[in-house]
Specification:
Shape: globular
CATH architecture of the largest domain: 2-Layer Sandwich
Bound molecules: zinc ion
Radius of gyration: 26 Å
CATH superfamily of the largest domain: Bira Bifunctional Protein, Domain 2
Largest sheet: 9 strands, mixed
Strand order of the largest sheet: 3-10-11-19-16-15-14-12-13
Structural class: alpha+beta
Length: 504
């Protein structure tokens, strides 16, 4: 990771990972398109998350509407609490987030302060309009949900969902029947969430429309543990405790998840289990361990529904520490509120008594880890620019190149290209420019393997396979290609073991 972050974004745009949305109309902040390579890679991250939570954890996946009637979000507290404290300039009329101004001009985090405390703070610190230097007016609240109406007329108000979680809580009765009364049980939802950011200036890190992957784990508050906790107990995690943050201490507590629970640093074993699982997921994406930490939100920073929240953060060059997932202990807040507002009984019979389930929620963004992975994978070695993506995560798994555009080589290469596609590989055929340039293009987008078809291929049906990270090449029989590639991508064999390197 020795590159300037700007160079990474330039590559990401040029090669079709991410593009600013609505570009030919001048663009709108807070929106990004995933291009042809980006869309494939994003879907791979989502699929890996499914592997962790749906396949291995055995959680149910649902898919509910993104448009949500106001009643639901009134019950969930979002109508009242999903707000940004704003302040308007008395002179030029521009509006700003009070928290941003305090951070920029006084270097203090005022998140969690009351309205009057914020006003007092801005006044005593002499915070002014960053545009014109004018004085600032009173604090007012701006709800960050996108508002719409359902059907014609303005009577039925709806919002684009700020989280996917509410769709799960609404279906709780049906879901717990589906779980046949077992606790704990988990439900996930993957899809778009929305936040009408005031002034998104951080590119893909602060989006107005983003993809989330959320899991709600329902459990008996008397038994807040995970059936497989013992398997995770020894996993080390790094915690930045709220108490340290409030004393302005940068200290990270490195501890096993079991100790973290025993010492009361993490509220229960379920939460601890999912902190460890989150770390494993980020490692699987290719984020190095030293770039991962869990920051405990201070009481003022926590969302209205949460009793304890840990932000999984990844260190980046461009944006500093970036929150990529939030793990919240939502207690029975959501179920009790929906029971009250809908007048449905949401308790269940469990262990001979009525129980209102509590919830631990691992909630991931997908766009932010996507960026973090790009940044941590991008390297340059001399003139070589490399995206050292995990092999499974690369949008293109294999490049197929005829050495020359004649002598029957393109025909043979096309045959191999078709064969690899029929075996399910994402393959790219490239016959333009020198072979060196083709390798360089493949390296830049992280393609782990390239196949070259040369004259010898026509003689003995062997071809060269090249490893992205070492640039080493090995000649193997065509008949072994598919099986070898599969094993390499799944990291079941090493590149060294497949044959003698070809002298260049
Ligand atoms: Zn102003």
């Amino acid at each position: 990771m020795n590159q300037k972050p700007d160079e990474i974004m330039e590559m990401a745009r040029r090669r079709g990972f991410i593009w600013p949305s609505f570009e030919i109309y001048g663009g709108v902040g807070g929106f990004y398109d995933f291009g042809p390579l980006g869309a494939v890679m994003k879907n791979k991250i989502i699929q890996k998350w499914r592997e962790f939570y749906v396949i291995r954890e055995g959680f149910f996946e649902i898919d509910s509407p993104t448009i949500t009637p106001e009643d639901v979000l009134r019950a969930s507290g979002h109508v009242d609490h999903f707000v940004d404290a704003m302040v308007e300039c008395n002179k030029c009329g521009e509006a700003f987030r009070a928290v941003d101004l305090a951070r920029e001009q006084a270097d203090v985090d005022i998140e969690g302060m009351s309205k009057t405390e914020m006003e007092k703070f801005l006044e005593t610190k002499g915070v002014r309009c960053p545009e014109c230097g004018g004085t600032l007016g009173k604090i007012f609240y701006f709800n960050a949900m996108f508002r719409t109406t359902i059907g014609p007329g303005s009577k039925r108000v709806g919002y684009l969902r700020p989280e996917t979680a509410q769709g799960i809580f609404i279906d709780f009765k049906r879901l717990q029947r589906h779980a046949r009364g077992k606790l704990p049980f988990g439900v996930v939802q993957i899809g778009k969430g929305y936040r009408n950011e005031v002034s998104p200036r951080q590119g893909i890190i602060r989006l107005r429309e983003f993809t989330m992957a959320e899991a709600e784990v329902f459990f008996d508050p008397k038994n807040p543990t995970h059936p497989k906790f013992s398997k995770m107990a020894g996993e080390q995690i790094g915690l930045w405790l709220a108490t340290d943050q409030m004393k302005n201490r940068q200290h990270i507590t490195r501890i096993t998840v079991e100790q973290a629970v025993n010492e009361g640093l993490v509220c229960n074993k379920l939460m601890a289990y999912y902190l460890a699982l989150t770390k494993r997921f980020l490692l699987e994406l290719g984020i190095p361990e030293e770039a991962i930490r869990f920051r405990e939100q201070t009481p003022g920073q926590r969302a209205h529904y949460s009793k304890e929240t840990w932000d999984a953060e990844v260190s980046t060059k461009r944006f500093g520490w970036v929150e990529v997932a939030g793990l919240a202990y939502r207690t029975d807040y959501d179920l009790s509120r929906h029971a009250k507002f809908s007048k449905e009984d949401l308790t269940i019979f469990y262990g001979g008594e009525k129980v209102l389930c509590h919830v631990v929620e691992p909630s991931y963004g997908i766009d932010r880890p996507f960026y973090c992975v790009l940044e941590h994978s991008y390297t340059s070695e001399g003139k070589r620019k490399l995206l050292k993506l995990k092999k499974w995560l690369a949008p293109i798994t294999v490049g197929v190149f005829p050495l020359l555009n004649r002598d029957g080589l393109p025909e043979k290469a096309t045959e191999i290209y078709d064969q690899l596609k029929s075996e399910g590989f994402m393959v790219e055929y490239d016959d333009s420019g020198s072979i060196g340039r083709r390798y360089a293009r493949a390296d830049e987008i992280g393609t782990p393997y390239c196949i070259t078809i040369d004259h010898q291929t026509l003689v003995d049906n062997t071809l060269t396979i090249r490893d992205r990270d070492t640039a080493a090449q090995v000649r193997i029989p065509e008949t072994e290609l598919g099986k070898t590639l599969q094993a390499l991508v799944q990291e079941k064999i090493s590149f060294d073991s497949i044959g003698e390197p070809v002298k260049k």
